[in-house]
């Protein structure tokens, strides 16, 4: 039973991580080259794994059912709890905006290609948002049933996609170097966001119990699985297309269609498109359900039809508004999400551990290595990621996507 829980929890971490953010990795890192992009992913995976272990250090001194808000309130007070709530809300809204923009662009592209309908880009965003909103508003059970089917299909599509793409990888493309030094910094927010799984840690702790040895294994192995998938995805996409071709295909539909066209294999384009659709749908379902429940709890809405309709409007209208005014804003919204994710997955764990270590602890308590130097280094990395996004917003750094 214990091994089953450990394995299942690894898949929860991996499943939470592998989603629509994966689609943004090749366009976001197009100007870096495969080698530099891979090093960047390894470093950011290391950062997120380290802060996940910090969360375990905090959890060992709290009840197994403690949430991030409980922990923040216990160690950082009411202000810390408020910061955690605001960051969570901003993160979920930004992710929903990204998925509506990406899903809407995909839907519009299919209407053009298969139905010969040339419609404003906003039509796809509205259609995609309404479809997911309907499923979420009906209830968690409907999300669960639909998500199981879509997730299974997504894994099948992922395996087929990699199998079709990897044989086309060319060594020359993989050896290309960064086009500009600043692009290394610009790519940080989007790549960082693709490793976000910290919201699932309290649920895993509650499920497994305070078995630190098992939880450490879950965090490291569970987050390493997406890293492996991402490296294979980068190998396949950056090996199949040159930097100039990737840089010219930054919009999601163009990137997906370009893979099939440039490799003269329509099946590749179709498979990547199917995977993209499934990744966007499953990611949007999970995130919007979390936001729906989060907002319903804050506003104290019950499960009556009227209250669920109100919660659905509050959940979906703000991110839909972003997608309507910025229909090609998939990667931009992921960049905005990185600011909130840094607060939740880097600053809060570092601050809570710093506070906790200043208090008396029982002998034999688990403590992540590295001491104060590692904590300060992690916080500095978080500052760099946020500065990267802010400088791109200000037009000082080159934007990705």
What does this structure look like?
InterPro entries: Amino_acid_transport_2, Trp/try_permease_CS, Trp_tyr_transpt. GO terms for molecular function: aromatic amino acid transmembrane transporter activity. One of its GO terms (biological process) is amino acid transmembrane transport. The protein has 401 residues and is mainly α. The chain has one domain (1-394): Amino acid/polyamine transporter I, CATH 1.20.1740.10. The chain contains 17 helices and no strands. The mean pLDDT is 86.
Outline the secondary-structure elements.
Blueprint: H1 2-17, H2 25-28, H3 34-59, H4 68-115, H5 121-138, H6 140-165, H7 171-174, H8 182-186, H9 188-193, H10 201-208, H11 212-240, H12 243-247, H13 252-262, H14 266-298, H15 305-325, H16 330-357, H17 371-393
Helix pairs in contact: 1-10, 1-11, 3-11, 3-16, 4-5, 4-14, 4-15, 4-16, 5-6, 5-14, 5-15, 6-14, 13-14, 14-15, 16-17
Q: What is the end-to-end distance?
A: 45 Å
Q: Helix count, per DSSP?
A: 17
Unreliable spans:
none
Question: What is the makeup of the main sheet?
Answer: none
Total number of strands: 0
Radius of gyration: 21 Å
Q: What is the CATH first-level class name? A: Mainly Alpha
What count of domains describes the coordinates? Answer: 1
Class by helix and strand content? Answer: mainly alpha
- The CATH architecture is Up-down Bundle
Quick one: overall form?
Answer: globular
Mean pLDDT: 86
List keywords for this structure.
17 helices, cell inner membrane, Amino acid/polyamine transporter I, 401 residues, globular, mainly alpha, 78% helix
């Amino acid at each position: 039973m214990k091994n089953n829980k450990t394995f299942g929890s690894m898949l929860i971490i991996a499943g939470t991580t592998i989603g629509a953010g994966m689609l943004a990795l090749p366009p976001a890192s197009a100007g870096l080259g495969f080698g530099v992009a891979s090093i960047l992913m390894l470093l950011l995976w290391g950062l997120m794994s380290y802060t996940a272990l910090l969360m375990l250090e905090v959890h060992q001194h709290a009840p197994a059912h403690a949430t991030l808000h409980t922990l923040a309130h216990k160690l950082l007070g009411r202000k810390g709890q408020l910061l955690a709530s605001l960051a969570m809300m901003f993160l979920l809204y930004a992710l929903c905006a990204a998925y509506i923009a990406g899903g809407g662009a995909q839907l519009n592209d299919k209407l053009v290609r298969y139905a010969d309908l040339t419609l404003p880009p906003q039509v796809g965003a509205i259609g995609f948002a309404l479809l997911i909103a309907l499923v979420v508003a009906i209830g968690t059970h409907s999300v669960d049933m639909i998500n199981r089917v879509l997730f299974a299909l997504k894994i099948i599509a992922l395996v087929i996609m990699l199998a079709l793409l990897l044989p086309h990888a060319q060594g020359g493309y993989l050896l290309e170097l960064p086009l500009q030094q600043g692009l290394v910094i610009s790519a940080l927010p989007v790549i960082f966001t693709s490793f976000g799984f910290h919201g699932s840690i309290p649920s895993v702790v509650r499920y497994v119990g305070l078995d630190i040895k098992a939880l450490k294994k879950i965090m490291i192995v569970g987050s390493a699985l997406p890293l492996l998938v991402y490296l294979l995805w980068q190998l396949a996409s950056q090996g199949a297309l040159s930097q100039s071709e990737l840089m010219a295909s930054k919009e999601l539909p163009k990137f997906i269609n370009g893979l099939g066209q440039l490799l003269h294999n329509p099946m590749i384009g179709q498979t990547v498109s199917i995977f993209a659709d499934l990744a966007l749908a499953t990611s949007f379902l999970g995130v919007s359900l979390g936001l729906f429940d989060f907002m319903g709890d804050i506003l104290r809405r019950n499960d009556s039809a009227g209250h669920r309709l109100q919660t659905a409007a509050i959940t979906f209208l703000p991110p839909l508004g972003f997608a309507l005014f910025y229909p090609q804003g998939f990667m931009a919204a992921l960049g905005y999400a990185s600011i909130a994710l840094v607060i939740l997955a880097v600053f809060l764990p570092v601050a809570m551990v710093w506070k906790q270590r200043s208090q008396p602890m029982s002998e034999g308590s688990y403590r992540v290595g590295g001491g104060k130097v590692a904590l300060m280094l992690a916080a500095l990395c978080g500052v760099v990621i946020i500065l990267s996004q802010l400088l791109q917003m200000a037009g000082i750094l080159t934007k990705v996507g």
